[in-house]
Design a protein that fits this description.
By secondary structure, the chain is an alpha+beta fold. It has a domain of 72 residues: 2-Layer Sandwich (Dna Ligase, domain 1), CATH 3.30.1490. The chain has 13 helices and 24 strands.
Length: 463
């Protein structure tokens, strides 16, 4: 491993988000940084404008290219399709349609799937043919909505290869794929990806091999004995729902009973918390002081056919998912000739030394800008860290190589599924698999997310 330490905790090949939330975070974070330096120059040179810190631009470029490829360069409609109850609340999708509308010859429209229609055999929206559709939900949700609303037009778009991400990614969009990557087939994947894949097993009563190669006679009882070092997650969960973490959720039996009752869980090796934590200055308005607080961090890499699209920085408790109450963190590339740790220490010390009343006005500015940008998710306003997370140009180079390997290895997983090698691993109902078979991926336009529990050099010392 070079450039950075750590592991990915899960991948998302279905409908990953964060691409526009990071853009807004950068706008607000840069304004806060400039204000902090007006109060007291920090002496650290940071770049908030690196292209990879604005992943929505790469995502929009991919959608536009896919649209024009379908329509031969003529005017095209990109349908941004989301569940009806989210249309007014998920700002990211609202913004995506607006981004698309600013491009000559492209029209973007946000809609629910039941607003699609068939006109003269074409998939349309309000009578206008749809070129491609970005569908912001996975195929299990699509199937459930189809049973309720009859989404024949959307299913036709799937058959015609108009849906992004392609539904063919769904069988490998399960967390149990880490058992394939890190198991007997590991020689078929890039060593960089294998080394960053935590030990993972489908959770059920079974015999298997443990993280250090030890024989496990009963995985359920072994999990109970080793709970502090493990995590239980739904194979297809999102927003941190149903996740139980050893040590954070101390009741091992409750976690195990939940996983067995709900079914389709994985058990995973827990990444040491210090490895993906950072200390961030936090204003405590009630106490009238600023303190250095330890938060868990998450670094999402967004990858497409042309490589890295960009990053998303999250922070909070465990899990860090925004849907579970986590927040976002500005990102900045370190241009000063110093280590990431030295730069972070300087920034922390400078903020801690600032007058709390003055710093409170900065936080008020941050919150005011968030309201102006409608910076909300399903739970309401999104928290924003006061200090940016730093990465170096060398680390960006390493992440670029990581992204290429990730895309390639996901294609390997798809080939294994299509050849039948993964049939015993994929526990998806047949109707959903039929939809997946309608639209194989094979490297076509898609956005893949890897949620990285990475250390860029500013993590606390291990306990």
């Amino acid at each position: 491993m070079t450039g950075f330490a750590g592991y990915h905790s899960e991948w998302n090949l279905g409908s990953p988000g964060g691409w526009d939330y990071q853009r807004v975070t950068q706008v607000i974070g840069k304004a806060v940084w400039l204000r902090l330096n007006e109060i007291s120059p920090v002496g650290v040179d940071l770049d908030f404008d690196h292209p990879l810190l604005y992943p929505v631009n790469g995502f929009v470029a991919m959608l536009v290219a896919a649209c024009r490829a379908r329509d031969g360069g003529g005017p095209g409609l990109v349908a941004v399709v989301a569940e009806e109850e989210t249309l007014d609340d998920v700002t990211e999708n609202i913004n995506l349609a607006e981004h698309l509308n600013r491009i000559d010859g492209i029209h973007g429209a946000l809609m629910s799937p039941q607003q699609l229609e068939l006109k003269s055999g074409r998939v349309c929206w309000m009578g206008r043919p749809v070129s491609i559709a970005f569908v912001d939900f996975n195929t299990d949700v699509l199937l459930a909505l189809h049973r309720k609303h009859d989404l024949t037009p959307l299913l036709q778009a799937v058959r015609e290869g108009r849906v992004i991400n392609p539904r063919g990614t769904e069988p490998i969009n399960v967390k149990s794929m880490f058992e394939v990557v890190g198991g007997p087939h590991r020689d078929r994947f890039h060593s960089e990806i294998v080394q960053r894949t935590p030990w993972t097993r489908q959770f059920r009563p079974r015999r298997t091999v443990g993280p250090r190669g030890e024989a496990i006679d009963d995985l359920v009882e072994w999990t109970a004995r080793h709970w502090n070092d493990l995590v239980l997650k739904p194979e297809r969960g999102y927003s941190g729902k149903g996740v139980r973490v050893g040590g954070v959720n101390p009741n091992a039996r409750e976690a195990i009973d939940l996983a067995l009752r709900e079914g389709h869980y994985i058990v995973q090796e827990k990444i040491p918390l210090h490895l993906w934590a950072e200390e961030i200055p936090t204003l405590n308005a009630e106490r009238g002081c600023t303190t250095l607080e330890r938060y868990q961090t998450d670094f999402r890499c967004l990858v497409g056919p042309s490589g890295l699209m960009g990053f998303l920085g999250r922070y909070g408790a465990v899990p860090t998912n925004v849907g579970s109450g986590g927040g976002v963190q500005p990102l900045a590339v370190l241009r000063s000739k110093m280590s990431v740790r030295e730069a972070v220490n300087r920034i922390n010390d400078a903020i801690l030394a600032m007058d709390c009343g003055t710093l409170g006005k900065v936080v008020e500015m941050q919150e005011r800008m968030a309201v102006e940008h409608r910076f909300t998710y399903l739970l309401g306003p999104i928290k924003i860290a006061l200090r940016p997370r730093l990465i170096s140009p060398r680390q960006i180079d390493a992440l670029t190589e990581y992204g290429r390997a990730l895309w390639s290895d996901c294609l390997t997983l798809e080939r294994m599924w299509l050849s039948g090698e993964l049939s015993s691993m994929i526990q998806i109902e047949e109707e959903e698999l039929e939809i997946a078979r309608m639209q194989p991926w094979r490297g076509s336009a898609a956005i893949i997310a890897s949620d990285g529990l990475f250390d860029f050099g500013a993590s606390p010392e291990p306990p």
